[in-house]
Amino acid sequence: QVHLVESGGGLVQPGGSLRLSCAVSGSTFALSAMAWHRQAPGMQRELVAAISGSSTSYADSVKGRFTISRDSAKSTVYLQMTSLKPEDTAVYYCTAIRSGSWGQGTQVTVSS
Asked: 20 to 30 Å CA-CA from 14: which of 62, 80, 98, 105?
């Protein structure tokens, strides 16, 4: 069973940066296809970024600002977020695409 634990969220000012981490355990195969979703208050969850093999994809709203990556040796997936905006405020979830597993989420708040 795939287990995911996110970390790295917090409060940041507009224009700032954060790096989210997702520790993956239970399956090294799960690392090959991972994604980050987010859910803002009163909104539906949305796909932010995904990585499958060597390919990455991003929501239009974060393209050019967010970068998804993985470190297989550490069994960790990252989401580097730059030029953060107040509308990026949400709970961010790490997901394993093949197993459908979700982490518990980490809060990101962008505010001055």
From this structure: 105
Contact 110, 13 (CB under 8 A): yes
- For 40, 60, 64, 112, the CA distances from 102, given in Å and listed in that order, are 16, 22, 25, 30
Cα torsion 100, 81, 51, 59 to 10°: value is: 80
The tens digit of pLDDT for each residue in 8-58 reads: 999 999 999 999 999 999 887 888 899 999 999 999 999 999 999 999 999
List b or e across 29-59, with b for residues whose CB sees 16 or more CB atoms inside 10 angstroms: ebbbbbbbbbeeeeeeeeebbbbeeeeeebe
Beta strands in the chain (DSSP E): 3-7, 10-12, 18-25, 33-39, 46-52, 55-58, 66-71, 76-81, 90-96, 101-102, 106-110
At 81 the pLDDT is 98
